[in-house]
Amino acid sequence: MPKNGNVFSSLTAWRRRVLTRAVHRGRRWVQETGAVTAERPGALRFRRLGAGTKLAFPQGTVFGEQWIELGECCIIAEQVTLSAGMLPGLDLGPDPVVTLGNGVVLGRGSHVVADAPVTIGADTFCGPYVYITSTNHSYDDPHEPIGRQWPRSAPVEIGPGCWLGTGAVILPGARLGRNVVVAAGAVVRGEVPDHAVVAGAPARVVRRWDPDQGWQPPLRTPAPVPIPDHVTSAQLAALAEWERQH
Hints:
single chain, 246 residues, alpha/beta, UDP N-Acetylglucosamine Acyltransferase, domain 1, seven-stranded parallel sheet, 2 helices, 25 strands, 27% strand, globular, acyltransferase, Trimer_LpxA-like_sf
């Protein structure tokens, strides 16, 4: 016959498992219910909110959404800031200030802060905590606090197909071409050509694609092997499970 201590211990463990499952189910329900989509925009009134686009819950700071256009099938992770204008309630004119193309991904905790126009091309992926801004503080007057001096603004353009690594910073006036890779922690200003890799603070080009010679300097790792057409998703899942167990 089990001792009372074992009975109470088993009952406590059972209650904890039930409570844990309930908490996780509740959390998933809150996340799904609080997400913003074209069908369920909540209180946000974006200039455009494309089909298939989702802003995960909880959202970060969002204001000036009347001047923000989000294309189709974008993924905006938790705690992402999207702001148009210096303060909520400003009239920014007839044109969009922030424009995201189709399929843009903004990682958790990223910021897009725009007074001048910011355009992010289709299928650009951003890791977590990327900071993109078209406005920067000025410090011309040495006698005035920097925060009280009028900032400088310049448009930002990020071409399609780019990848911005974790913690990258894109400064006012930056213009990135197509399929640009920005290394984690890089600080980008000025123009970056198509098919380039930039790194550092300030960022500089460390690798470029040449149509005749390929990547220069050459890549140090072999190209990934594409998945054969006949392989199914179930087979890939089974392979992943096998690798996990072994």
